[in-house]
Amino acid sequence: MNIFQAELKYYLRSPIIWLIMALSAFVSAWSFLLSIELFTSMQVKFAEMSDAPTILQGIIYPVISAQAKLSILIVAIVAGLSFSRLSINNGWSLIKGQQQSEWMIIKQKYLAILLVALIFIIPAIIAIFSLVIIAGLKIIPIIMAICGLILLLMWMLALAMYISSLVANSGFAILLCIVVLLMSWLLSQSSVGVEWGKNWLQALSPQYHFQQFLSAYLSLASLFYFIAGITICLFATRIRLIHKRYLLS
Amino acid sequence: MVNIILTVESLNFNIRNTNILNNIDFELHGFQVVTLLGPNGTGKSTLLKSLAAQLYCQQGHILLNDIDAEKCRSLYLTKIGYMPENALIIPELTVMEQLQLMANGKQLQDTHNAIESVIEQCQLKNVLDKRTCQLSLGFTQRLNLAQAIMNKPQLLIMDEPLNGLDPHLIIEFRNIIKQLKKDTLIIMSTHYLAEAQTISDRVLIMQNGQMLDDLNMSQQLEGFDLEKAYMQHTAPQVACT
Q1: Pairing of strands B155-159, B80-83
Q2: Contact call for A6 and B101, based on CB within 8 A
Q3: Closest-CA residue in chain B for A95?
Q4: Band of pLDDT at residue B235, cut at 50, 70 and 90
Q5: B88 touching A, CB under 8 A?
Q6: Among the listed ranges A176-185, B108-117, B160-169, which one has the minimum average pLDDT value?
Q7: Which of B52, B84, B100 minimises the CB distance to A1?
């Protein structure tokens, strides 16, 4: 058994994960049904409009956006626990005594939390693809949107894992992850007039870059933002792991 | 038989300008039980963590048969076993899974045989399917020891292994240590002076991060009292308010 398997067992044997999973499945199913109902009831009004929203704009993108918002809570719990819980039960000694490199440990832990976080969004993805098949929609924009959702998830997981490595208390780590992720999300709400030039504060938000994936073309800048963010956070976690050997606790 | 030499040269460990280990020097030869004694907060656990390569060696050297704990850390880790004061366990795993995880972490060649061997040695057969969080303190310490000796270490480091154990378990532990002593250099810390006198070949006394005395138990006269010697060496710490 390696760290990846041990991490998976830890998460999948924790009742809180199943509770959150049930809650998340309920919320995503509810928002999906609600958007279908709303879209159906608006058909008469849409018929009068020249640029009426399509199923993609009216159902699929809102559902993916709702899933992205919901994943803030999921990521905070899953990744927030990854290193912070090691302070209990002497887990840091277990990590420090490993023959494997810090990268290997981080890689295995990251893949485990990524897999657990993906389990949360799989029901929504299945629902979206079912709708795509039934309605005979173009698949490319939907795949792009789902790729954006997965990249956003990976970005948030890497950041939350780094935060988790800084904190010794699991509860505080989860809380801190929620606060940091929400604040970074809210950065995209910052509105300054176009006359002031590009809003760089907005460009720092993952929400802003995630929105770029909910369009027909691939934004390379947003792709770079996510990949660079993941790499920097994982690298920072590695430095933190090395630094742990300089500390007594 | 492999001869074993552990050399600690001018070992220092500082945190925020506080010297926790202050120029520690000693050398240990051959298979024996060495006990580290000293008041609380004197640096025993820090020294043991440094020996286990859990802490970065800021100044000085730790060499096990000329293998440097810092420069050749990976190789050094294959030669040692570390049993910390609080057991290394993941509560959601079963005892068997915990042993498999440790075997993987130590990158052992023959994982199956190594696990079977420690299960036998530490008598863990009846609790293999139990979650580690459900174990009694005695079994937790056995699991802790099993993980430390899984790679058949030349140097076994134990941080207060007897803490909280009842007299039966202490005797059981003593027997396991006697068995291990045949081919392992064992360094342990404890506050049980009577037990230290019974099982130790050598006693190191520490205070304020310094090594105060090095007692070779076989060279002591009959009627030697370790408690008396310890009390003479270590002045009681007066709490500052």
Answers
A1: parallel
A2: yes
A3: B105
A4: low
A5: yes
A6: B160-169
A7: B100
Cα atoms in the 13 Å half-sphere on the side-chain side of B197: 14
Q: Which of A14, A90, A246 sits opposite B84 (nearest CB)?
A: A90
Task: State which residues form the domain around A71.
Answer: 3-246
| Average pLDDT of the residues of chain B | 85
- Give backbone dihedrals phi and psi of B34, rounded to 5 degrees, phi first: -115, 125
Distance CA B161, CA B144 (A): 9
Q: Contact A91/B52, CB-based, under 8 Å?
A: no
Query: What pLDDT shows up at residue A175?
Result: 95
Q: CB under 8 Å to A158, separation ≥6 — which residues?
A: A110, A229, A230, A233, A234, A237
Structure tokens at B61: 């050297």
Residue B159 lies in a domain: yes
Residue B29 neighbours by CB under 8 Å, 6+ apart: B3, B4, B5
Q: A97 and B46 in contact by Cβ < 8 A?
A: no
Q: Which residue of A has its CA nearest to B59?
A: A246
Query: What are the counts of helices (DSSP H) followed by strands (DSSP E) for chain B?
Result: 8, 10
Structure tokens at B132: 């580690």
Q: How many cross-chain Cβ pairs, A to B, lie less than 8 Å apart?
A: 72
- The reply to whether B229 falls in a domain is yes
The pLDDT value recorded for residue A24 is 83
B102: chain A residues, CB-CB within 8 Å: 94
Q: Please report where in the chains the tokens 């049993």 appear, as a residue.
A: B83
CB-count exposure of residue B121 (10 Å: 0-12, 13-18, 19+)? middle
Which residues, in sequence order, are CB contacts of A126 under 8 Å at separation 6+? Answer: none
> Among A49-58, A151-160, B137-146, B158-167, where is mean pLDDT lowest?
A49-58
Residue A222 has pLDDT above 80, yes or no: yes
Q: Is B209 on the interface with A (CB under 8 A)?
A: no
Domain with B206, as residue range(s), is 5-86+152-233
Task: Report the range out of B5-9, B193-197, B210-214 with the highest average pLDDT.
Answer: B5-9
Å from A177 to nearest chain B CA? 23
* A247:B20 CB<8 A: no
Into how many domains does chain B fold? 1
Q: What is the pLDDT of residues B54-89, one digit of tens each?
A: 888 888 889 888 888 888 888 888 889 999 888 888
Domains contained in chain A, number? 1
In a domain, B128, yes or no: no
> Does residue B108 belong to any structural domain of this protein?
no
- Is residue B239's pLDDT more than 60? no
The ipTM of this complex is 0.80
Residues of chain A whose beta carbon is less than 8 angstroms from a beta carbon of chain B are 1-3, 6, 9-10, 13-14, 89-91, 93-94, 96-100, 245-248
Token pair of B163 as six digits: 């803490």
Q: Which of A10, A93, A99 sits opposite B92 (nearest CB)?
A: A10
